[in-house]
């Protein structure tokens, strides 16, 4: 169990598949559309099972994160809603008003995930044409204004990308001074922004020994500014009662993935400017022959998926040990996912959660309906 002396409990969130869900990668067999009803099922299940929050992704391929989150706030009770802030798409004054509205609707359950974006090709679809460094410079200006407004200041700024004159937020956040800000980025400028502005720094699931260098660096940059921040990791999970069953499930997930699929996807991925995405790609190098890049850390998802490309694969006790290795380097937050997300939420909660010391574990279990998880599964599917 993750409960080492002096170590914080683990904050475990889930992922909302607002671009659609799958049973197999590179196949439509068993695929599910991101209908409002299905997203509601996943969110209610995560809420009842004891996950502390849900990440809503963003991009032209996803249902809008803000409207989706607003629709889920009334049907969930404890689930925090991790919603994307998009510098360059919305001005900070409008973004902070939207954030306050959702924080108030959800009674203080809003979390903010700042997404700068790593692909000029994809960002152009949204009308953003800045290069990599310019995008992050704009993000820094955005967060400076957003946070000042959130603190209740009257804000005047004249920036390279963003300006505001005597801006003020009239309705305060429920959370003080504002909803927590989460952010991920592996480049040097991204780490500087994290050190200056954010509450939680997010990384994709690299091997712990490799990820430790990133965390140590960001922590040192924050300390130089007199700040402390928390650290989280984004991982997929394939948990089964035995190791053999888990690895069979991992191999089954990519049963339809062909070498041509991998080649096409990796060629497209090579065009991104994202440093974090390059680090993910370097774990497998497009080679499906040796995908266990660290004990129980499997890079098969990254063969044909952007973003988080690794999964922890194994039986519950073993995966809990691997999470302890992440905790030892400073990780206190996990955003998990699995295919399909409804069923895998139950597997993670039923099999893995009893091995973990969770932030809201006991509270969530006390508040949850007192009937078996199998009944919860039926209720979520109805």
UniProtKB/TrEMBL annotation:
Top-level taxonomic group: Bacteria
Keywords: Flavoprotein, FMN, Monooxygenase, Oxidoreductase
EC class of the enzyme, as a word: oxidoreductase
Enzyme Commission (EC) number: 1.14.14.5
Keyword Oxidoreductase set for record: yes
Residue ranges annotated for the Luciferase-like domain, each copy included: 11-332
A molecular function GO annotation: monooxygenase activity
Cross-referenced SUPFAM superfamilies: Bacterial luciferase-like
Residue intervals passing through the bilayer: none
InterPro entries found in the cross-reference section: Alkanesulphonate_mOase_FMN-dep (IPR019911), Luciferase-like_dom (IPR011251), Luciferase-like_sf (IPR036661), SsuD_RutA_monooxygenase (IPR050172)
Pfam families: Bac_luciferase
Homology family: Belongs to the SsuD family.
Protein name, entry field: alkanesulfonate monooxygenase
Protein source organism: Sphingomonas olei
């Amino acid at each position: 169990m993750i409960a080492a002396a002096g170590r914080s409990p683990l904050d475990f969130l889930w992922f909302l598949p607002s671009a659609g869900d799958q049973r197999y990668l590179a196949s439509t067999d068993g695929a599910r559309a991101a209908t409002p009803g299905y997203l509601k099922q996943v969110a209610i299940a995560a809420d009842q099972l004891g996950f502390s929050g849900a990440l809503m992704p963003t991009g032209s391929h996803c249902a809008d994160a803000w409207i989706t989150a607003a629709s889920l706030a009334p049907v969930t009770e404890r689930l925090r809603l991790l919603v994307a802030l998009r510098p360059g798409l919305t001005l900070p004054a409008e973004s902070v008003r939207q954030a306050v509205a959702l924080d108030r609707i959800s009674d203080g359950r809003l979390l903010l995930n700042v997404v700068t974006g790593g692909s000029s090709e994809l960002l152009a679809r949204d009308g953003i044409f800045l290069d990599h460094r310019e995008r992050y410079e704009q993000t820094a200006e955005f967060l400076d204004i957003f946070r000042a407004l959130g603190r209740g200041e009257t804000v005047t700024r004249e920036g390279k990308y963003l300006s505001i004159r005597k801006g003020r937020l009239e309705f305060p956040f429920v959370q003080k001074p504002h909803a927590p800000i989460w952010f991920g980025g592996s480049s040097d400028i991204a780490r500087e922004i994290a050190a200056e502005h954010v509450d939680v720094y997010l990384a994709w699931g690299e091997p712990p020994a490799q990820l430790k260098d990133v965390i140590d660096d960001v922590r040192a940059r924050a300390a130089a500014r007199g700040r402390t921040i928390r650290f989280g990791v984004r991982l997929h999970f394939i948990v089964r009662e035995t190791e053999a069953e888990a690895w069979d499930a991992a191999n089954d997930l990519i049963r339809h993935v062909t070498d041509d699929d991998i080649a096409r996807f990796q060629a497209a991925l090579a065009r991104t400017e994202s440093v974090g995405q390059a680090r993910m790609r370097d774990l497998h190098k497009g080679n499906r022959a040796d995908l266990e890049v660290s004990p129980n850390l499997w890079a098969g998802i990254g063969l044909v998926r952007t973003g988080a490309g690794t999964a922890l694969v194994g039986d519950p006790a073993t995966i809990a040990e691997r999470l302890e290795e992440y905790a030892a380097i400073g990780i206190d937050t996990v955003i998990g996912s699995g295919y399909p997300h409804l069923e895998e939420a139950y597997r993670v909660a039923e099999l893995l959660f009893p091995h973990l010391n969770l932030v809201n574990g006991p509270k969530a279990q006390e508040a949850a309906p007192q009937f078996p998880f199998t009944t919860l599964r039926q209720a979520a599917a109805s």
